[in-house]
Q: What sequence folds into this?
């Protein structure tokens, strides 16, 4: 509780005491009784009167302070002193609860997203100093002890161990780091004592970039939020107009003696009409939604994007790096006359000096130490493969062209992927299939898309037709386009943008490195595995910090839930208000009920908004 | 252009925040005004050499519109 709130609580309590004394005071001492009520009223309501007066001077007349002032002063006017004080008191109690709830939720959501490190242990003059991360320079050595947060991005110079990246990526699996690995700020060391050489200043470090993004997120307002602000602008004058008519018209026709009855009804009508519940609960719901997403490693850059995500109609994915791992892996070995292990061994030896991704994948699959002495001859045949002599055997490793050039009769392999043929001593020894692997999580993502009302999933890729076809088929993708150049991707996205329904949104998902134009062109651009890549964070509207495509569905799901809560609050608040407005217009609701309808609805709407934080994984 | 960031306290509701944002946006030399009711953050951009002068006007406008609101540079 802050100072302001404590002061308010003090005023409420003292006003209540005066109210009770006044209430018990016998009617014979009417002047004392009424003065005590006035003291209570001024204690609790002075702030409201002051604000209302100030706002009238500033030219914006119709706000809740104005409504409360007119209602309570009006009640004084018709002699309902007790009611006037009670209403003001009740209103302030409600306001107090409301700001308390907002303050609490603000804190809990902010804590959720708080990955800011408080200090850094830096080596200076052979001493370890605890300083603000802001003060550490690039190139200095910092120390991270077990349980501490990594304050700045840096490379490990000493130590190894496990890092918890949960706060940063939402990924529960700890990451192992060793010497020369890059460690990102915001991770927490689980058991490791690490010495890092600082690579980036604090303001450029990952943690700062992410914090900046999340903090600015709520400044981009959604349509619903803008609607509510506009709504409040028109709503209050209309309500005041109706209240005036309600106070004047019926007495004119029914005779002036009923004027005070109708004035009382008009005043109750004013009290219930405050739009606070809507004005406060809707930004809170969006803020909660953004917080809930951040907790899972999804950074949404604004409420407008969170709102748009709920209308996702079409998802367009890049293939490599998004649906597949983007790393070549040996998938299958088919030895002829030699064992699979031998074929792989000779292939790995022959490709030992090459740095091509295919060669790297062969060496990785072989996994054992390569004895360089066994390789006595090695020649790269550009565009075809390698000729090498290993352990006295003549080895040919390469594509079909290589086999044909050396007149080796081989069996063609029709599997999908890159095919490597191996010949030993001019005899065909077998083939190896190398391809990019589909992420396990991609299957889950596809399943989730269907559940979240995504109508079509399209894959765009620069990769070969047969590989793309196989990936699309395995994942159940509706449409795919292969062998595309970057500018063709933009054209296709333009085409899909013009085909979708007016209200539906198009989401493009890419790795953010070479998709920047498309990311910007789509309704919502999502970049994956964006950690540490500034370009990706800049270009996209939503950043997924891990490389799990299923988080796209999670984001859509959170947006659905947020929108549902927003709608619930709008419908609930407006229904209760209209009901009580009608009741009070016909004299069936007292001013007490009116205050409850105003303040109670606000508190319930706030509590409902906080449910977003408890969305299941 | 320099981006200036503040913590803003004492706002009653999101509508007040967006109202204040509109008013501040109209000040000459001020750009990209953003007030977030939820995060209690306020930021704007201006020419670096005009910052002091602009900040004075901003404080005046805030005092007129929402006297309870306080800002503190971060």
A:
């Amino acid at each position: 509780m802050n100072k302001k709130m404590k002061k308010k609580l003090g005023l409420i309590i003292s006003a209540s005491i005066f109210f009770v004394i006044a209430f018990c005071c016998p009617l014979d001492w009417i002047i004392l009784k009424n003065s005590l009520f006035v003291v209570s009223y001024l204690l609790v309501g002075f702030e409201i009167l002051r604000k209302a007066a100030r706002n009238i001077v500033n030219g914006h007349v119709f706000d809740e302070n104005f409504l409360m002032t007119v209602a309570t002063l009006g009640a004084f006017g018709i002699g309902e002193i007790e009611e006037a004080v009670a209403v003001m008191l009740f209103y302030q109690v409600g306001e107090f609860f409301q700001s308390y709830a907002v303050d609490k939720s603000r804190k809990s959501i902010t804590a959720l997203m708080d990955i800011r490190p408080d200090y850094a242990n830096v080596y200076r003059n052979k001493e370890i100093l605890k300083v603000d991360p802001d003060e550490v320079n690039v190139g200095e050595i910092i120390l991270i002890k077990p349980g501490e947060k990594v304050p700045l991005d840096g490379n490990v110079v000493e130590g190894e161990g496990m890092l918890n990246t949960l706060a940063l990526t939402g990924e529960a699996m700890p990451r192992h780091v060793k010497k020369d690995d890059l460690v990102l700020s915001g991770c927490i060391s689980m058991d490791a004592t690490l010495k890092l050489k600082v690579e980036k200043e604090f303001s450029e470090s990952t943690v700062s970039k992410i914090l900046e993004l999340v903090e600015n997120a709520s400044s981009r307002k959604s349509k619903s939020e803008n609607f509510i602000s506009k709504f409040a602008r028109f709503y209050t004058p209309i309500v005041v107009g109706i209240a005036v008519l309600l106070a004047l018209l019926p007495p004119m026709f029914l005779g002036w003696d009923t004027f005070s009855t109708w004035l009382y009804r008009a005043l109750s009508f004013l009290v219930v009409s405050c739009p606070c519940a809507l004005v406060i609960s809707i930004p809170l719901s969006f803020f909660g939604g953004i917080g809930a997403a951040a907790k899972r490693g999804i950074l949404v850059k604004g409420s407008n994007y969170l709102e748009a995500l709920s209308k996702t109609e079409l998802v367009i994915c890049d293939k490599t790096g998004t649906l597949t791992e983007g790393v070549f892996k040996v998938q299958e070995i088919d030895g002829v006359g030699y064992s699979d292990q031998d074929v792989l061994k000779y292939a790995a030896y022959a490709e030992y000096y090459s740095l091509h991704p295919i060669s790297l994948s062969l060496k990785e699959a072989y996994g054992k130490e390569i004895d360089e002495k066994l390789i006595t001859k090695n020649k790269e045949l550009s565009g075809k493969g390698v000729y090498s002599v290993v352990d006295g055997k003549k080895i040919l490793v390469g594509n079909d062209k290589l086999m044909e050039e050396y007149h080796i009769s081989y069996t063609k392999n029709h599997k999908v992927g890159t095919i490597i043929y191996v010949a030993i001593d001019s005899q065909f020894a077998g083939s190896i299939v190398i391809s990019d692997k589909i992420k396990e999580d991609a299957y889950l993502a596809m399943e989730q898309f269907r559940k979240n009302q995504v109508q079509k999933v399209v894959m765009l890729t620069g990769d070969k037709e047969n590989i793309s076809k196989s990936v699309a088929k395995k994942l159940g993708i509706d449409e795919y386009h292969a062998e595309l150049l970057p500018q063709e991707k933009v054209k296709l996205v333009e085409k899909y943008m013009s085909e979708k329904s007016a209200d539906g949104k198009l989401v493009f998902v890419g790795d953010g490195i070479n998709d920047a134009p498309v990311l910007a062109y789509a309704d919502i651009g999502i970049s994956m595995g964006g950690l540490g890549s500034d370009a990706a964070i800049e270009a996209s509207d939503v950043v997924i910090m891990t490389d799990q495509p299923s988080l796209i569905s999670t984001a859509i799901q959170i947006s659905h839930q947020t929108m549902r809560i927003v709608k619930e609050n709008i419908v609930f608040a407006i229904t209760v208000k209209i009901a009580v407005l009608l009741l009070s217009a016909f004299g069936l609701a007292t001013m007490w009920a009116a205050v409850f309808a105003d303040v109670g609805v606000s508190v319930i709407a706030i509590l409902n908004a906080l449910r977003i934080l408890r969305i299941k994984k | 252009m320099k981006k200036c960031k503040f913590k803003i306290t004492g706002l009653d509701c999101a509508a007040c925040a967006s109202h204040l944002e509109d008013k501040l946006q109209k000040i000459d030399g001020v750009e990209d005004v953003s007030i977030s009711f939820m995060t209690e953050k306020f930021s704007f951009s201006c020419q670096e050499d005009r910052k002091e002068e602009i900040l004075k006007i901003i404080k005046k406008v805030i005092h007129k519109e929402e006297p309870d609101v306080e800002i503190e540079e971060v």
